Amino acid sequence: MKPTITRTAVLLALATGSIVHAYQVRSDMILTMADGQATVIDGYMEVGEDGRIVAIEAGEPPASSSEEIVDARGRIVMPGFVSGHNHLWQSAFRGLGADQELYGWLKSLHWTFGRHFETGDMYAFTLHGALDQMVNGITTTLNHSQTIAPSYEDYMEQFAAEMDAGQHFIYSYVLDSDEPDVEARKAKLVDLIAETEALLDGHPCLGFGLHGVGIYRGADKMSEEVSVAKELGLDMQVHYLEEKAESLKSGQSNFQAMKEGGAVWDGLVYAHFIHVTDEILNVSAAAGAKMIWNPLSNGRLASGLADVPRYIDQGLQVGLGVDGAASADIADPFQNMRMGMYALRMRDSDAGIMSCYQILEMHTLKTAEVLEVEDQVGSLAPGKYADFLIIDPVSPVFDPYATLVFASDASNIESVWVRGVKQVEAGEVLKHDLPELRSEVAERVARIAAAAKNTKPEDHM
Ligand SMILES: [Zn+2]
């Protein structure tokens, strides 16, 4: 069956899309995070009717420019966070497998509950995850969608939910293994991409990638994914070298097959990439492969600490992700930055190992670069979407970067804007009924948990 984008999805996407009045945002603390622009700007940002940034300048705006003003003086204006690795549906399942590492945790979540999902579950859980991320300041996410629901139609609810949520996203797609042949599997993805591109500008999907599962399911599957990704010009993201025991047992030795199968190229994006060997790191960096670091999830699941400063020295591009909210367990980019940065500082007893500016840049522009959407989002610059946060900082502010990274969390977020449209104000989602959705999610999870109670968890991935 052909993938479908729901009518509601299209209408809502247009409604949350590009129709805004031009306005200016005034602030004495604009952090653009644009390449080479570390100086804090005291000035204004002009947003056009298409939801894109027209200008960012120091000083007073010209008298002739738009009259509508968002006064953010005394507050920090920064680009929305970009999260490069997420499973949005997991937001409904926090706090599970508290004493487990990756595989024990997977057993307590995916393999216990997955088969009991019904129509509508993935939609509700994914929408919940996307809205929750926006409340926490994440305006662009890569949803590494997962196929735990029983049917392809249920699986595709993840896409429909993101189209409705209003958050910018990249859809990391899993080829439909129920289709018997390669051409049919590929055709479904080609149709989805074409159908999305045919929508009027204003929808929140910034692009597609492939979620590679072949690394766990055999060389044939992997080479099929690699050839589809290369043919369609998509990146492929894979979970790799996450849990320590599995990495040492089989993960590291799988690299040879990946290399020989053409899987290590500049379209490969690793999620986690913790337990590397010198060879794996060097070959990957030389090939132009990239990675998403997920320190919150890596800490929670005791996966280990990626030696990110060394990776960067080797030339690897590194972005940040909060991962699924069942292993994070809060999709909080502030906490994510601190977890990663503090772990490195503790390890090395060296405060110079990573600066506030560097970790903030990693969760905005650098992640957008890894996802290849830096021409659209990731920093505040003319031509890009006006995806920004207004932060009410603790005072006094000695250094806005340090205040953001050390002394802020989601409760400091005054408002969240995507495509120039305000989506969140004082923690409240403006375009969806989040409290009602939370009740619906709780009911659906209770139904699934009751159904799972007397069944044995599945024992496969
Ligand atoms: Zn993941």
UniProtKB/TrEMBL annotation:
Domain of life of the organism encoding this protein: Bacteria
Signal peptide: 1-22
InterPro entries: Amidohydro-rel, Metal-dep_hydrolase_composite, Metal_Hydrolase, MTA/SAH_deaminase
Coiled-coil regions listed: none
Pfam families from the UniProt entry: Amidohydro_1
Keyword annotations of the record: Hydrolase, Signal
UniProt domain Amidohydrolase-related: residue ranges: 76-420
PANTHER family for the chain: AMIDOHYDROLASE-RELATED DOMAIN-CONTAINING PROTEIN (PTHR43794:SF11), AMINOHYDROLASE SSNA-RELATED (PTHR43794)
Name of the featured protein: Amidohydrolase family protein
Organism: Coraliomargarita algicola
